[in-house]
Design goal:
InterPro entries: AAA+_ATPase (IPR003593), ABC_transporter-like_ATP-bd (IPR003439), ABC_transporter-like_CS (IPR017871), ABC_transpr_TagH-like (IPR015860), Bact_Polysacc_Export_ATP-bd (IPR050683), P-loop_NTPase (IPR027417). The protein is α/β, with parallel strands linked by helices and about 270 residues long. It has a single domain (about 15-20, about 65-265), classed as Rossmann fold. The chain is built from nine helices and nine strands. The strands form two sheets. It has a six-stranded mixed beta sheet, with helices on both faces. It has a three-stranded antiparallel beta sheet with strand order 2-1-4, covered by helices on one side. A hairpin with a 2-residue loop joins strand 8 (about 235-240) and strand 9. The chain is globular, with a radius of gyration of 21 Å. It binds adenosine-5'-triphosphate. Adenosine-5'-triphosphate binds near residues 24, 81, 83 and 85.
């Protein structure tokens, strides 16, 4: 009998989100906020009466389901506060889900503008530490070091790589973060607005690198407010609005609807 589950060219799932809800809890919104009694109350009443204890719930993602496959580059779009970064963090395993499940193949890496590099250490040290944190060996880092520095362009205007990160402009720091993260072939790479921070020529290089990463069989998620970046990089788009998945489909189809939505004067 034919085995229908293993056809040639079968698409391999890398991330599965199944009915995902994500809720933030914000402390200190009730009466007596910040006081020791309020804090004690929160501990004692935990779970039973969050509201009475001054805990506000922010329901950031609601019942979102999708399946991402190997080789796909998926854009996440939506107006401010629609839940894009929250969803990305949950896929990276940095936020718990309230309901539903997220399954991933391999360890997803979140590459955000806020990725933790040490401000007091030099760019050079950060390249080494960042590489180690991603699971690269010392030998691998040594081998890739020059490539990372060249890609970042940090040394184009002088020997900045041997200066502490705090002396870098925000664009330079973002470029170094992206370069470190992009040095490794990731199973699932999550990019949050990183492309928007560099200048145009760096954005071009990053887009190229994302395309390369895709070729190496990974899956890339890109959160961006630049429809152009999404068009240039992604073949599929998830559109979130108020935490709900409004559309999931080919880039052009989804962007067409999204552009109509954002152009309308009374969209909320
Ligand atoms: N740490 C937090 N605590 C409480 N609420 C939060 C927290 N982070 C985000 N939120 C809320 O969750 C919702 C979704 O935020 P999120 O940052 O995921 O949106 P976004 O689509 O990435 O927005 P933007 O395009 O502005 O970056 C918003 O209502 C926001 O206020």
């Amino acid at each position: 009998m034919a085995d229908n589950t293993k056809q040639a060219g079968e698409r391999v799932p890398t991330v599965i989100a199944d009915g995902v809800d994500i809720v933030y809890r914000v402390n200190g919104t009730g009466a007596g906020r910040g006081s020791a009694t309020a804090a004690l109350n929160r501990i004692l009443r935990r779970g039973r009466a969050e509201k009475a204890a001054g805990v506000r719930r922010v329901h950031a993602v609601r019942n979102v389901s999708f399946v991402a496959h190997r080789g796909e580059a998926i854009g996440l779009i939506g107006t401010n506060g629609s839940g894009k970064s929250t969803l990305l963090k949950a896929v990276a395993g940095l936020l718990p889900v309230e309901r539903g499940r997220i399954y991933t193949d391999g360890q997803p890496s979140l590459l955000g503008v806020n990725a933790a590099l040490m401000n007091d250490l030099t760019g050079e040290r950060n390249v080494h530490l960042g590489g180690l944190a991603m699971g690269m060996s010392r030998a691998q880092i040594k081998e890739r070091y020059q490539e990372i520095v060249d890609f970042s362009g940090i040394n184009d205007k002088g020997d900045f790589i041997t200066l502490p990160m705090r002396t870098y402009s925000s664009g330079m720091a973002a470029r170094l973060r992206f370069s470190i993260a992009a040095a490794k072939d990731h199973d699932v790479l999550l990019v949050d607005e990183a492309l928007a921070t560099g200048d145009r020529s760096f954005q071009k290089r990053s887009e190229e690198r994302i395309r390369e990463l895709r070729k190496h069989a990974g899956t890339v998620f890109l959160v961006s407010h630049s429809n152009k970046s999404i068009r240039d990089t992604c073949d599929r788009v998830l559109w979130l609005e108020r935490g709900e998945l409004r559309m999931d489909g080919p880039t052009e189809e989804v962007l067409k609807e999204y552009e109509k939505f954002t152009a309308a004067p009374t969209r909320r």
